[in-house]
Design goal:
five-stranded mixed beta barrel; 4 helices; 5 strands; elongated
């Protein structure tokens, strides 16, 4: 009797068998038939059916099982509330004694905007209306586009008058419309 030797290469085996079967384990695990392609409507329908079957499985629980789950959930929520209250209490006690849980933030003054414009109205007491003209080049068309905006500024000494060129600086809200302060009058109106 002559013994057969095992083939050296897997491809030789497949060729010897006429290419009928795949010898490698990776090829054996691959599906022989292509996966079915579903229409979106069919896909949604199958998803709904799967969800309905899960709901039925959940509905088959007994009232005692549902009650036990509810109790477990309530205990978890109660524990979370207790921890939150303890943190809040520790924070409140720390702030009342002076030792803070979080370090206080240092106050760093920001850089206020400074604008130059022309006073168009000084009728209101301690308030001036300033028109700020800007000219910029349009990004696409390269045309000079001129725009203006008006803002209300605080003038404590009623120093500026209509037609004056002034410098104003950004400030905290002083009234409903005022968010600027007069710095100086650069040029008086003639």
């Amino acid at each position: 009797m002559a013994e057969e030797q095992p083939p050296e290469n897997v491809e030789e085996t497949t060729e010897a068998r006429g290419g009928r079967a795949a010898a490698s384990p990776a090829a054996q695990s691959a599906p022989a038939e292509p996966q079915e392609v579903l229409a979106p409507k069919e896909r949604r329908q199958r998803a709904r059916q799967a969800k309905a079957s899960q709901t039925k499985a959940r509905a088959t629980r007994t009232p005692e099982e549902r009650h036990a789950d509810r109790i477990v959930e309530r205990r978890q929520k109660a524990r979370a509330r207790r921890e939150g209250r303890a943190k809040a209490k520790a924070k409140a006690s720390a702030s009342s004694t002076g030792a803070s849980v979080t370090p206080p933030r240092e106050h760093v003054a920001g850089v206020q905007k400074v604008r130059q414009g022309v006073v168009v109205s000084d009728k209101a007491d301690k308030t001036i209306t300033v028109r700020i003209d800007t000219a910029r080049r349009h990004r696409r068309y390269d045309k000079i586009v001129r725009t203006s905006q008006t803002l209300h500024a605080h003038d404590e000494a009623n120093d500026a008058h209509t037609g004056d060129t002034v410098t104003v600086r950004e400030a905290r809200p002083l009234s409903r419309l005022k968010r600027w302060r007069l710095i100086e009058v650069l040029e008086r109106a003639k």
